[in-house]
Design brief:
Radius of gyration: 20 Å
Number of strands: 4
Largest sheet: 2 strands, antiparallel
């Protein structure tokens, strides 16, 4: 990989963002992984958004709409081997975050998250009404 041409570790497209190889949270529970260099890989938006918080090996070989296998990415096994070697290069020291963070605080975080999502949905409805009003006033 050239420094001026960084590519998605999963499919080889140009990199647009960084992905956590192993997710930080699954089913609202901390996994113990962090944002350290050994858990970050260059990714394109298609791969990062399709993978979500799925295990990377399963996702790459799976049927998700934008997974490397579903997209027919060449050298899939070679990519899997390189990611496995990268993961082995810097073993993660997983932290038991449930022992570190008060469970009530964690629950409060998820209640806040749900409220934010709800407000965003309500905002989308209001924005659609504004857009319709503007279009109607403009004769369209």
């Amino acid at each position: 990989m050239a420094i001026d041409d960084v590519r998605c570790a999963y499919c080889g497209d140009p990199m647009t963002e960084w992905d956590h190889l192993n997710p930080l949270v699954v089913d609202r529970k901390p996994t113990g992984f962090s944002s350290e260099i050994g858990n970050l890989v260059p990714s394109c938006g298609k791969c990062n958004q399709s993978k979500g918080n799925k295990p990377w090996r399963d996702w790459m070989r799976g049927k998700s709409a934008r997974s490397p296998k579903a997209r027919g990415i060449e050298d899939l096994e070679g990519r899997l081997e390189r990611l496995q070697a990268y993961e082995a290069w810097k073993r993660h020291v997983r932290k038991n975050l449930e022992e570190i963070v008060d469970p009530d605080l964690w629950e409060q975080h998820w209640r806040n998250w749900e409220r934010v999502i709800q407000v965003m949905k309500e905002s989308q409805v209001i924005a659609a009404k504004i857009k319709a009003a503007i279009a109607s006033a403009a004769g369209g």
